[in-house]
Every structure is written in C-alpha cells, then in structure tokens.
Write a structure and sequence with these properties.
Blueprint lengths: L24 E6 L12 E3 L2 H6 L8 H14 L5 E6 L5 H4 L7 H7 L6 E4 L11 E2 L2 E2 H18 L6 E5 L17 E2 L2 E4 L1 E2 L8 H9 L21 E2 L2 E2 L6 H6 L5 E2 L8 E2 L5 E2 L8 H18 L17 H18 L6 E5 L6 H4 L5 E5 L20
Parallel strand pairs: 1-3, 1-4, 4-7, 7-9
Antiparallel strand pairs: 2-3, 5-6, 8-15, 10-11, 11-12, 13-14, 16-17
Helix pairs in contact: 2-6, 8-9
Length: 385
C-alpha cells in the first residue's frame, strides 16, 4: 500500500435525541446546450452576468436560470458556483451515480473546491413521474446513490454534502418517507419552493449556505427573510399549509413563516439520517468537513518526513508538541467562531521506529443552537409572597 494519510470520522460522541473555500457550491440542472456551454460540461461562474455570457436565459433553460438566479439573489454576486447542464431525460439518480460521468465530472473539474452539491431536474412536459410515498420515486432512488457518491469524495479528502430536489410532492405529509429512519448523513432533501409547480428551490438553499459561515443554520432568523415573494411545498402555499410540522419531523427542508415577521425562512437543516447521528444536520456536516480539509492539508505536508525518536523508538515530546501546535494554529485561525472547542492529542508512547505510524486524536466541540425556546409567562401578585 502506498504511504498515505487516513482520517476516520468518529461518530456517537455528541449523543444527540490555507483558508478553505467554505461557500463554493455545485449545481446540476436539466437543460439544453447553448453557445457557451455543452451538456455535461462543467462551468464555473461568479454571477448572473457570467450566466448570460454562456448563453443561459429564462427562455432557453428555464429551470437552470431559475435555480441560478435564486442562488445569486441569496448568495450575492461574486460567489463561486460550479454549474453543469444535463439532458432533461436524465434522472437525478443517474446524475449522482458514482459510476457515471455526470456529478463526478463536475466534482473532479472543481478539484475539491465544491463543498455542497445541489441536484435538480426539470423534466420535459411529457414526463409523468412515478409517485412513491408522496414524491417522485426518483427522489428516493437518488438518496442512497448520493450518499455513495459523497463517501467516495470523503475518501479523497474532498468531502461534500448532496442536496436533492424533492419533486412532485403530492401534498400529503403522512405519505412521505421518514428520512430520520435512514443513515444517509451526507444527503438532504429539499421541499421548500418559490413556485407551486412541484419543484423545489435548490438554488435558494445553496445560496443561503454560500452566504453564511459553516456553523450557521440556514434557518437562522437573524440572517433575514429569504428573497422570495411566496413560499410553497409542492402546490401547497406555506402560509396556510398545516403539514409543515410533520414534514419537519420527518427530516425535510421546507419553508416557514413567523407571526409578526414578513417573509419566509427555512425550518432547519436536516440530513436523511437518525437524530442520534452526530452528522444529522448540514451545520455539523459542514463544520466537520471543513475541519477534515484543514487537517488533511496540514498533515499531508508531514508525510514521509523524518521523525526523531527516543531510545525506545517512540516519538519525542518536542515533535509531538510541534505537530499538535501546528494543527491547533491552523484550525484556531481558520475556524474562529465556528467551533466551541478544538482538542488535539498525540501520545508519545507510539513506537514510530517499528510501525512507521503516528496516531493523532482530534476532538471538535460544535456550536449549540437555540432550536426551541421555552418561556414561562404569567401574572404575579406581590402580596402572595
């Protein structure tokens, strides 16, 4: 086996019931080729003017234009977006298939810069979805394949989260599959939409993530309302839809409103996995993935370097301390405010001379979130004291 670095992401510890390009997103949409972009051709753009320059308009690529516009309406001009168009006949499950040349081509072209990949589909008018558990069957077929894709790129130290468009929602929240029973902790499903046509606003979600630090929840109220005029889930208007609570509990990304506030907000950032999974949210996933990237970039520089040892063949204390300080400095400077705590430990009783291996233990304490605020409010009669 070639000398290399292996990073194992530990799980189960939270007990939950070079600067990295944190905001670089990828987006795959159905469409037709233009003068500036062919089908299955990766393109990197930085704003709506770049989209215009490659010939994509609301007339020739309605779905792609919509998703990219909603992305830049939220992320702002100048944000780096890797874009690919594919034929409308192509299913989302084929797009993310690690053995096919669609998502893999885009991810490889970006050379590890993409942090989150959004997968959408705008099928032809003649397309008739096969409905399974309240959604287009293609959505459920895509989830496990997206997980396999994401794990493959984690192994390449280019970790991603994949967000899938939840298409053709029937409007019956009791029918949809409970994503919180799955184990796909790198995949999320979006039902939030600015339109009532059975689509979902993947670009909108990606744009919000591109605009915020990795530890920030996309539903954070202080971040402000989303730049849309109306919110839907399937054909249901969010304002009057009564099924949002159950969709939230089942792990879908939807829109919501707050009494006394204008506009629409995301409910949360769940992934299709168990609540007990440490990586059950986009925030935890983005935080650990940023840490993974920094750890890899730091320690790959030490690979096959000389390591002084003591009389027993163990790593000497000054070297272990230097290695600890190196990653502490990198993480503390690159992730200021994005972590609650960061710990590194290198045991000095490791016989490097005989094994050629150094084990490093790293523990990350994430930021907490005020997901429920309980207020006890009532009258007080001072004379009763």
């Amino acid at each position: 086996m070639l000398p290399g670095i292996k990073i194992n992401l530990t799980n189960g510890a939270l007990g939950g019931v070079s600067p990295s390009a944190d905001g670089v997103m990828g987006l795959i949409c159905s469409g037709v080729a233009t003068i500036g972009i062919n089908l299955s051709e990766p393109k990197v753009i930085f704003g709506m003017n770049d989209l215009k320059n490659i010939g994509i308009t609301a007339d020739n690529n309605v779905g792609a234009y919509r998703h990219v516009k909603e992305y830049y309406d939220t992320a702002g001009e100048g944000s780096e977006l890797w874009l690919m168009l594919v034929a409308s006949t192509l299913s989302m499950s084929d797009i993310v298939d690690n053995s096919q040349s669609y998502a893999t081509v885009l991810l490889n072209a970006a050379q590890g810069r993409i942090n989150v990949l959004g997968v959408t589909r705008t099928p032809s008018v003649a397309y008739s979805p096969i409905i399974q558990a309240g959604l287009d069957k293609d959505v459920y077929d895509t989830i496990p394949k997206a997980q396999v894709l994401a794990l493959a790129y984690e192994a390449k130290f280019a970790p991603i989260t994949v967000l899938v468009e939840g298409r053709s929602y029937t409007g019956n929240e009791t029918e949809v599959t409970d994503l919180r029973t799955m184990s796909n902790n790198r995949v999320g499903v979006i039902l939030a939409s600015s339109m009532s046509d059975g689509s979902a606003s993947v670009g909108l979600v990606l744009g919000r993530m591109a605009a915020i630090p990795v530890m920030r929840n996309i539903g954070r109220v202080k971040s402000g309302a989303l730049p849309i005029s109306t919110g839907y889930v399937g054909a249901k208007k969010v304002d009057t839809y009564t099924g949002l609570n159950l969709l939230h509990d089942k792990g879908y990304i939807v829109l919501r409103k707050f009494v006394g506030k204008e506009g629409y907000y995301f409910n949360d950032d769940p992934l299709a996995t168990l609540i007990s999974d440490d990586y059950n949210s986009i925030t935890n996933r983005r935080v650990i993935d940023k840490t993974l990237r920094l750890v890899y970039k730091t320690y790959v520089e030490e690979l096959l370097d000389e390591v002084p040892v003591d009389a027993k063949g163990n790593i000497i204390i000054p070297i272990a301390s230097a290695w600890q300080s190196k990653i502490e400095n990198v993480v503390n400077s690159s992730m200021l405010g994005e972590l609650s705590a960061f710990e590194v430990f290198i045991a000095t009783n490791q016989n490097v001379l005989s094994t050629g291996k150094i084990t490093i233990t790293i523990k990350v304490t994430p930021i907490g979130y005020a997901k429920t605020i309980v207020i006890n409010l009532g009258f007080n009669n001072p004379s009763n004291k």
